[in-house]
Amino acid sequence: KAMESIESQTVDERDLSTIVMSIDSKDLPMYKEKIKKFRRELHAEALATPKRDSVYSLSIQLFKLSKSEK
């Protein structure tokens, strides 16, 4: 669906973004908690809106790009 949206939706109807960052791996639980909080807050705001005329999908991924040292 994401690839399809690039062709079928205007930039005003969608948002696609990526960041690559280096982190201290001990902070990973904090970042995951922040993502969870953001999703919950955004969902609560959407539910509080009386007029809802469109359905959107929000996907957030956080995964390691660097290779693990063995």
For the sheet with most strands, the description reads: none
The helix fraction, in percent, is 40-55%
The secondary structure category is mainly alpha
Question: What is the H/E string?
Answer: HH
| Overall radius of gyration | 16 Å
The global form is flat
N-C termini distance: 37 Å
Number-wise, the strands total 0
Give the strand content.
Answer: under 5%
Extract low-pLDDT stretches.
none
Output mean pLDDT.
Answer: 92
With helices defined by DSSP (H or I, 4 residues minimum), what is the helix count? 2
Structural account:
This protein is mainly α and 70 residues long. Helix content is 40%, strand content 0%. The mean pLDDT is 92.
Task: Provide a concise account of the structure shown.
Helices cover 40% and strands 0% of the residues. The protein is mostly helical and 70 residues long.
